[in-house]
């Protein structure tokens, strides 16, 4: 075992890897693996969501095998959980906690019930001492399609808060990652931070960051201007739906992209859609 770390570098990413639906799925996930492998600073722990295909997970493992030699792909539900955890340090134990309340089987067009959403848990040892353990929790909670699913999302927030609290009571470092599908100040966010001894680290480091999309009532009440693409990345921690993400561009703009077409540069001052970071 190497010397105890003085810092832990963490990556969490929804890779959009749904089989038969995600565009250029194989190519994108291989490239994600490559980018993780050359990242500076090197990540110590990586949590992936929507990595549904085991072949894609193995492709990422091949690309990152020298810096993240340990990993776990979590099965669950007819379509799989989409959850995976990679680590620089040994994974001593792992399990999957299935959310008791998670969507409706009749809503097959949404898929939440069929992927068997839950919490992937990995107990990772970063040192020789009995307390040199971090418990990593990786989740993708139910999507907020409409208010009828709020009870599902509240229940899931309560379930993961209990898991986090239990890990903290064991004296372990607790790291909660994932696509939480929630914004600061929401009931779900407040349940987790109130009932478990955890903090939203982005909010700690950027206390003035957004609390929702620009059209969200809580964000509109702050009367802030529409953020720029650069501000969205650096201050709001919003990468998914910002102007730099060509996968979110309107179809008309996407047609300007491709081999043989002129290079397009997005100015840092470009107004961007404000989508808040996840917990």
What attributes does this structure have?
279 residues; alpha/beta; four-stranded mixed beta sheet; 9 helices; 20% strand; globular; disordered C terminus
Helix percent band: 25-40%
Biggest sheet statistics: 4 strands, mixed
Q: How many beta-strand segments?
A: 8
On the 0 to 100 scale, the average pLDDT is 92
What amount of the residues lies in strands? 15-25%
Order of helical and strand elements: EHEHEEEHEEHEHHHHH
Poorly predicted sequence stretches spanning 5 or more consecutive residues: 274-279
What value does the Rg take, in angstroms? 19 Å
Overall outline: globular
Number of discrete helical segments: 9
Query: Strand arrangement, largest sheet?
Result: 1-2-4-3
Oligomerization state: single chain
- The assigned structural class equals alpha/beta
Q: What is the end-to-end distance? A: 31 Å
């Amino acid at each position: 075992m190497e010397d105890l770390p003085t810092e832990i570098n963490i990556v969490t990413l929804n890779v959009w890897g749904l089989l038969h639906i995600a565009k250029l799925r194989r190519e994108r996930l291989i490239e994600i693996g490559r980018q993780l492998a050359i990242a500076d600073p090197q990540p110590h722990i990586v949590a992936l969501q929507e990595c549904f295909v085991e072949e894609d997970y193995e492709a990422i493992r091949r690309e990152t095998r020298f810096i993240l030699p340990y990993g776990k792909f979590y099965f669950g539900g007819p379509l799989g959980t989409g959850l995976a955890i990679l680590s620089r340090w040994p994974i001593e134990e792992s399990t999957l906690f299935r959310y008791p309340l998670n969507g409706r089987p009749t809503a097959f067009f949404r898929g939440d019930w069929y992927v068997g959403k839950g919490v992937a848990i990995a107990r990772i040892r970063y040192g020789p001492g009995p307390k040199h353990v971090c418990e990593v929790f990786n989740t993708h909670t139910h999507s907020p399609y409409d208010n009828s699913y709020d009870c599902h999302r509240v229940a899931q927030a309560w379930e993961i808060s209990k898991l986090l609290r239990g890990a903290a009571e064991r004296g372990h470092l607790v790291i909660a990652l994932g696509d939480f599908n929630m914004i600061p100040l929401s009931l779900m966010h407040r349940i987790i931070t109130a009932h478990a001894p955890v903090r939203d680290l982005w909010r700690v480091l950027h206390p003035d960051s957004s609390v929702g999309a620009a059209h969200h009532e809580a964000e509109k009440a702050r009367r802030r201007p529409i953020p720029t693409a650069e501000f969205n990345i650096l201050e709001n921690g919003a990468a998914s739906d910002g102007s730099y993400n060509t996968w979110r561009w309107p179809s008309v703009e996407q047609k300007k992209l491709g081999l043989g077409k002129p290079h397009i540069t997005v100015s840092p001052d470009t107004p961007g859609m404000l989508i808040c970071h996840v917990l």
